[in-house]
What does this fold into?
Amino acid sequence: MSATATRNTGIAVWILGLALPLALNSAWVSVAAIFAIYGIVALSEDIILGRAGMFDMGHAVYFGIGAYVTAILNVTFNWPIFFTIPFAILLAAAFGALLAAPLIRLRGDYLLVASIGFNAIFVLAMQNDLFGLTGGSDGITGIGVPSLFGLQIESQNAMFWLDWVVLGIVLLLMRNLDGSEFGRALRYLKQAQAGRTRRDDDRRQPAQGENARLRHRRRPRRPRRHAVCGAALHRQPVLLQVHRIGDAVRHRHRRRPGLDPRRAARHRADVRPAPGLPRLRPIPLPGLRLRDDPGDGAAPAGAVAAAGGAGMSALLELQGLGIRFGGLRAVDKLSFTVDKGQIVALIGPNGAGKTTVFNMITGVYRPTEGSIRFEGQDITARRPHLVAAAGIMRTFQTIRLFPEMSVLENVRAGCHLRVRQQWWQGLLSLPSQRREEAALAERAHDILRRLDLDSFAHDRAVSLPYGVQRRVELARTLAADPKMIILDEPAAGLNDNESAALSETIFGIRDSGITVLLVEHDMNVVMSVADKIVVINFGQKIAEGGPDDIRNDTQVIEAYLGRDDDEEEGVS
It folds into this structure.
């Protein structure tokens, strides 16, 4: 059953429940009132368990704290019942924050067991008459009758109406929550839990890459000429595929070594947008458009890059960047800059440390040495959400969409950092919140149209072909209104036509005023889009320059394919 159908069913049950006092005796009306109370508790539990997907069973504790605070203030201090409710809410919320501090990083069964443990602790504390206020196992007696505007709520029917009205208000608030950004954020959190195991595998990837490097060092590094193919597999040339550079290897003694510029040059000339996939244009939404909108009179970033980089300033600067995992050095004293309006490619064999560099830039890993500066500000120690808020967004090697959510909801997730509404505004569905929701929806639809994804807007992300999912991930990144996007192998798994369309899309992103830094294994894509290429091997930079420079760099050839026996003999 869909969320909308569930909400409608709850509203229908609530409406029918209004007539219960007319059809039932007082005993059953009392049961219905208790049902309403526990329905409120269940709805609050549904926020964490149902929407956020977190196995937290601590709500019984908050429910108990609210009840005890109300009873203690009424009996001991003679406060009116309704006057005690705000204080009960505040104290329960404070205890919830205190409970969350040690449990915030727990997931799954660990969170479930820990929260159940807190329930047991609370019950024991109350039964042992904490501070002499809780009455021990007998509880608190002598609680007064609630009154509202001088009206005593004494009868079973009156208590039922009160409880049932409060339940209706909570149902209304839950409906508003589902349509707010805060409600979507809870659902994003739930969907993210499904991919947690995969993310843990990605976090272990650098160490695996380092182990691979050590294995490589124990193997021969200079293969015989007839073993070029085996050497290529041994050196893991994912970016410079053997079938694309075979001519350069076979004829390296007849001409200067190169990376087969003919094929890359043809690819650069042949890049055309796929049908229905135009170049990106600035978004015409006030306050929500991409930065450096050419419509404001500013020249597109691509025009600056095409003019030879005149007047460009460094947007991202890496100085002496390094990181260790135990005794393994994944990245060693890496330095390079990315100028505003550039498309820069970071390439190297598998295990060279490319994704590790991306993880350090985006705050996933903290460097052990060196610095990272973005727009002149040091972001070396910033956490990922702060890096994203600064204007750096990224995609991943493996697609990380919210699989059971629609394409539109996935793209709207990219707008989360730019949302101004507070959670309470979403609960109350204020006019300002509704206006912002409409603007965000229009922005998401516009991005989908620009990437030819509008026909998939209401399809589940998991049901889409791989190439379309890649474009959805890119659309989500653009929705965040970034200054720079980092693309980690965006062409992985794409066919030649899709790769050509991707190249055109990257040009459009750059022309919209967004700087691009990418890692890519497809040589044609790299050579066709990159203004500058940085090559790393074993975590160290071995070359930097334009496509023509990198294409003919001897160190780059050797990093991927090893050294020829004849060359070794000539050197000796």
